[in-house]
Amino acid sequence: MELINGNEIAQHIIEELKVKVSNIHGPKPCVVFIRVGEDPASVSYVRKKEKTAASIGIKSRLKILPENITQDQLLNEVEKENQDPSVHGILVQAPLPSHIEERIIFNNVSPQKDVDGFNALNLGKLCQEQNDAFISCTPAGIIELIERKKIPTEGKHVVILGRSLIVGKPTGMLFLQKGFPGNATVTFCHSRTVDLQSYTQRADILVAAIGRPQFVTGDMVKQGATVIDVGINRIEDPSRKSGFRLIGDVHFEQVAPKAQFITPVPGGVGPMTVAMLMSNTLQAFQKSQ
Ligand code: NDP
User: Fold this and answer.
1) What is the predicted pLDDT for the residue at 214?
2) Residue 212: which of 171, 161, 267 has the closest Cα?
3) Reduced to 3 states, what is the DSSP secondary structure of residue 46?
4) Which residue in the list 59, 113, 114, 116 is annotated as catalytic?
5) d(Cα 106, Cα 72) in Å, to the nearest integer?
6) Known catalytic membership, residue 93
7) What residues in the chain have per-residue pLDDT under 50?
8) Looking at domain 137-270, which of 3.40.30.10, 3.40.190.10, 3.40.50.720, 3.10.120.10 is its CATH number?
9) Which residue, by CA, sits nearest to atom 18 of ligand 1?
10) Helix (H, G, I), strand (E, B) or coil at 116
11) 25-110: what CATH class?
12) Three-state secondary structure readout of 197-261
């Protein structure tokens, strides 16, 4: 079993980005984070993104909006950033409060500033395999891990647990693309899949993105599989200063002995998501020049 060290690979990408950003003369790339409300996970994710941007030399600005903001008011705030020529990337932190339709907000972020890749135009371009699309950061991070570890995908059976727009669907589309990483046969599973285990047991690469702690157990995984654990589940843990710990969707102790490659939680896909966001921001800046 080999652990895929997402922290190390993400740091590598960040170092590469630092060099590229330091070579920019004049105004640096700038990303705006829009956070609605005080959801503790969102607060912590955005803080991490701000810190990483600063470490690279990417400018960032945080806009905090009240939980009870209306959809129209939020659209108005997004539009202000769309119109601001000094802003190259816009990220609206999900999840948004239930009275706001996320899809509408994402579709109103300018496609040229959509560093999260959730806009319908960028998702459509991904399906069309147009290489100028912004690819959503977690799927892009997963593919980057596969590429950097040179894990074969051609003709392999990739099983994705989860069909969300943010993770499951775009990840499957990337594995399906022509070329490497890609050319895989992809199966999507979700909460209505019957006999889930019969699919997971046949996966050469298993991606777990369902948000259920330790859902994937040892008996669900084929010997020698690559297992990518996307899940981030906050479990109460009074012994920790923070009061919680993070665990994945995969039962690591049971699955790791059977896997050829496996990502840990934390330290697997999570840091890659942040690194790919920074890479998308630099790309947005370059396209704007
Ligand atoms: P969603 O809740 O949007 O989607 C979850 C998916 O899992 C749905 O398609 C759902 O099926 C499916 N699912 C739920 N329960 C089961 C089950 N028992 N069996 C089979 N399928 C099931 O979550 P996200 O895609 O946004 O996130 C998934 C996980 O990844 C979460 O833990 C999240 O925190 C984490 N995450 C991690 C990131 C990172 O950077 N590492 C970034 C983004 C998310 P159905 O569609 O039928 O409801």
Assistant:
1) 98
2) 161
3) helix
4) 116
5) 13
6) yes
7) none
8) 3.40.50.720
9) 191
10) coil
11) alpha beta
12) HHHHCCCCEEEECCCCCCCECHHHCCCCCEEEECCCEEEECCCCCCCEEEECCECHHHHHHHCCE
